Structure formats: C-alpha cells, structure tokens
Automatic annotation (TrEMBL), chain A:
<dbReference type="InterPro" id="IPR014349">
    <property type="entry name" value="Rieske_Fe-S_prot"/>
</dbReference>
<dbReference type="Pfam" id="PF00355">
    <property type="entry name" value="Rieske"/>
</dbReference>
<protein>
    <submittedName>
        <fullName>Ubiquinol-cytochrome C reductase iron-sulfur subunit</fullName>
    </submittedName>
</protein>
<dbReference type="GO" id="GO:0016705">
    <property type="term" value="F:oxidoreductase activity, acting on paired donors, with incorporation or reduction of molecular oxygen"/>
</dbReference>
<dbReference type="InterPro" id="IPR036922">
    <property type="entry name" value="Rieske_2Fe-2S_sf"/>
</dbReference>
<dbReference type="InterPro" id="IPR006311">
    <property type="entry name" value="TAT_signal"/>
</dbReference>
<dbReference type="GO" id="GO:0051537">
    <property type="term" value="F:2 iron, 2 sulfur cluster binding"/>
</dbReference>
<dbReference type="GO" id="GO:0004497">
    <property type="term" value="F:monooxygenase activity"/>
</dbReference>
<dbReference type="InterPro" id="IPR017941">
    <property type="entry name" value="Rieske_2Fe-2S"/>
</dbReference>
TrEMBL record, chain B:
<protein>
    <submittedName>
        <fullName>Uncharacterized protein</fullName>
    </submittedName>
</protein>
Length: 174, 63
C-alpha cells in the first residue's frame, strides 16, 4: 500500500479504499458474471472445429475417391474364392471375395481388433482373424464373434470388361 | 444491500443454452446431419456476443 492517501483530508481517487481488495471481493457478482461470459466464449470457440469438419463433410471432401485400381480378372476368380490386394495405398491390405456369379464383396482386411490380416474360409463361409479367432460376416463385414467390435471397412468394387476394379472405401458407419 | 440478479440469471440461461446446443451439435455430427451441426454451432457462436451484451447491459443495474 502506498501512503499517498494517508493525508488528512486524503485525496480520494477511488471508491474502494475501504475494501481489502485482496480477498474481500474475490467472487462478487461482477466477477461471477465475467466468468459466465468467459464460459460462453469457451463454448463458442470450441464449437468452431465441429462446424469446420461438418462444413468439410458437406462440401464432399470426406468422400475421397482414389484412382480406380484393377484387382484381378473375373476369369481368374472362381465363385467362392478370394484374392488379396492392396487398396487404396500400397500398405493397406484388402480382400476380394466372389460370393456368386455377379456378387463381389471387398473389405480392408486388417482386423478391427489388433489389425491382424483377416482371411476367407470358403468351407465355413466366414472371414476369420487368426490371432484371436475374431469372425466377420462376409455379406456386411460386421463382426460376429471374438474380440473385434467394429465392422471391416468395405471397399466398393466395379466389374468392367471382365476385370474387377476397386473404386472407393466406404465411409465407416457406426 | 438490495441487489438485482437479473444479469446473473440471463447469463446462466445463456450458458444453459450453450450446453444444450453443444450437446445437440455433437450428436447431430455423429448422426451425420451436418446442416444441423452448422446451425447449432452458429447458435453457439452467436450466444457469446449476446452474453457480452447482457453483461454490459446489466452490470450497472444497482439497487
């Protein structure tokens, strides 16, 4: 405390000389309201990234289309057989299964539990992860047994002139 | 000393709306209704200047 106000009559330059500023007004109404306004500001700022990702989805940037990649020839893949390939990157393992004459399914075959490669067991009609015996439904990629809880990401395929192409990875749907 | 708590009440209401809108926004994001995300995010942002305005309007109300 400076003693500039110790003269009599003292030169009053504020109206708070009778208040112990350190503690007395620690949480008065004004301070509380400032906190509330600050909290509203935090909410406003924190909703910005959500708006940004939503706008990104709306503009269709999330639906990324990779260059079409030839997997194999239809004639090389008998009904019920599977072939492994890489899509979209060179290190993203995937598997294509021919279920019937015109029905193909393809998934990224890294198990959604610990990313072991899932393979196709023709005799049992199931996709099995060898590490912990996780099983996936071949029609949808949904997990049916074992530790995995999330479906395999599906890859859209296209048949053109006797060749099978990978088109895009479907969005993950919860 | 008599006090008016109108400002506090208004700000608390704004904060409540903030919470509700944020909850909506996040849920609508996961339901993939991205237009609604933008609407509620915008409302959340609009509430902040509103809160500042309410603070300035009510701070000098005495007795």
């Amino acid at each position: 405390m400076s003693d500039k106000n110790n003269k009599i009559p003292f030169n009053e330059d504020n109206y708070t000389h009778n208040i112990e500023r350190n503690n007395e007004r620690k949480l008065d109404r004004r301070g509380f309201m400032k906190t509330l306004v600050g909290a509203a500001g935090v909410f406003a700022v924190s909703s910005l990234p959500w708006g940004a990702v939503a706008a990104k989805e709306l503009m269709g940037l999330g639906e990324k289309e990779y260059p079409h990649k030839k997997i194999t020839e239809v004639s090389n893949l008998p009904i019920g057989d599977a072939v492994e390939f890489k899509f979209p990157g060179d290190h993203d393992d995937a598997i294509l299964i021919r279920l019937s004459e015109n029905k193909y399914v393809a998934y990224q075959n890294a198990c959604t539990h610990l990313r072991c490669p899932v393979f196709w067991v023709k005799e049992q009609g199931e996709m099995i992860c060898p590490c912990h015996h996780g099983k996936f439904d071949v029609e949808t990629g949904a997990p049916t047994a074992g530790p995995p809880r999330r479906p395999l990401p599906e890859i859209q395929v296209k048949v053109e002139n006797g060749s099978i192409y990978a088109v895009r990875v479907k969005r993950y749907e919860a | 000393m008599k006090r008016k708590y109108l400002g506090v009440i208004i700000l608390a209401a704004i904060l409540m709306m903030n919470i509700v809108f944020t909850q909506y926004m996040v849920h609508q994001y996961y339901y993939e209704n991205y237009e609604n995300v933008l609407i509620f995010g915008g409302l959340n942002i609009v509430l902040f200047p509103l809160a500042v305005f309410a603070y300035k309007k009510t701070i000098n109300m005495r007795a």
